[in-house]
């Protein structure tokens, strides 16, 4: 998208910013722009975390519900597994 922006275009943009805000306000505007970008990034990461955490918890609860119970052994199967006593 911005692959065709070169040095002349950047200089024109800087000249327009200088004309609009003046030399004294440029550091102030740049600082507030940086703070705004930082706050935007922080809010985006919080929103992403708010979306992914419930989804992660949901998959954990689904995984817990999926556990297949072991089959119940009948008394006959249990007796068959135990060694037989010769002298009872």
From TrEMBL:
One of its GO terms (biological process) is protein transport by the Tat complex. The lineage of its organism: Bacteria, Pseudomonadati, Gemmatimonadota, Gemmatimonadia, Gemmatimonadales. It is a single-pass membrane protein. GO terms for molecular function: protein transmembrane transporter activity. Residues 54-70 have a biased composition (Basic and acidic residues). It comes from the Bacteria. One of its GO terms (cellular component) is TAT protein transport complex. Forms a complex with TatC. InterPro entries: TatA/B/E (IPR003369), TatA/E (IPR006312). The keyword Nucleus does not apply. Belongs to the TatA/E family. Pfam families: TatA_B_E. NCBIfam families: tatAE (TIGR01411). Part of the twin-arginine translocation (Tat) system that transports large folded proteins containing a characteristic twin-arginine motif in their signal peptide across membranes. TatA could form the protein-conducting channel of the Tat system. This is Sec-independent protein translocase protein TatA.
């Amino acid at each position: 998208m911005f692959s065709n922006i070169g040095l002349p275009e950047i200089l024109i943009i800087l000249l327009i910013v200088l004309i609009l805000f003046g030399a004294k306000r440029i550091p102030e505007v740049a600082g507030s722009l940086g703070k705004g970008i930082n706050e935007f990034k922080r809010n985006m990461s919080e929103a992403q975390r708010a979306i992914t955490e419930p989804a992660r918890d949901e998959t954990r609860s689904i995984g817990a519900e999926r556990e297949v119970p072991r089959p119940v052994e009948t008394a006959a199967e249990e007796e068959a597994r135990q060694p037989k006593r010769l002298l009872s």
